[in-house]
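Title: Prediction job returns without error message
Component: structure pipeline
Severity: low
Priority: P3
Assignee: unassigned

Description:
Job completed but the reporter wants confirmation the result is attached to the right record. Sequence as submitted:
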Amino acid sequence: MEKIIIALGGNALRRKGEPFTIEHQYMNASKVIKPVVALAEEGYKICITHGNGPQVGVEFFRNIYSRHKFPPYPLDALNAETQGWIGYVISRAVRKQLREDKIDKEVVALVTQVVVDKDDPAFKNPTKPIGDFFTKEEAEELMKNFGWIMKEDAGRGYRVVVPSPKPLRTVEAPIISKLVDEGVIVIASGGGGIPVVEEDGVLKGVEAVIDKDRASALLGREIKADLFMILTEVDYVYVNFGKPDARPLKEVSVSELKKYYEEGQFPEGSMGPKIEAAFDFLENGGSKVIITSIERAHDALYNGFGTHIYK
């Protein structure tokens, strides 16, 4: 049976304007995990990854605003923290759904480290948005007060941006692969993994947030997944997105998609990293990529829904 790596967006657990409570995010997890568990019931071997942009942003702000009483933690530690509790929330939801569906499978969430290059140019050009959205006026005030870099995110408001280096190797990939092969549903590489550099064989955390789709594509290659599913907020990838002549892409080859990419159809702050992750997966051994909404995951696999990308 096919092996699938499924990337859940960071907004899967908390969408813009919703409360940040654990209870609310668990409620969302219980909803979004149903189509994933349905695939496990049908025999697919599954590895789940997830984003943490909204969550790590909250922890970032919490640390900054309480810095006069408590020492702020670095971003690698905040990645580990959010990876842990988001993995807990998702695994709880998966276990509950497995029990309700009477499926005899195990699930485990693993804290995962991802090696990056300490000389990656991304460290000099922050692009990865984290945390909540702010108006232009609020962003200008925050940048003035704290020296943060803030950029507009796909027309939805301004967010803090941090370095997002290219993922090179998933440290725990061998054990993840073994568990998935044995039929365990594995939750791994959350938030793109904890960014680390390797110096003389020793791993050291760095201040960054790795893009979760790029890290998912890497892990998919490492565990030899057949299919990479990117589940996001839209049903399809569009050309001319947001314009009157917007058109959904249903079945598209890598070569055709590259033409649209080179035209600038997929911005860095939104669909761009997902498209780049699709290229990376398919050009390094993967067979197929599907990009669609969480709600339509099952339809995408069985009824041709969503954007299907082939070599």
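Comment from assignee: result matches the submitted record. The longest helix spans residues 75-100.
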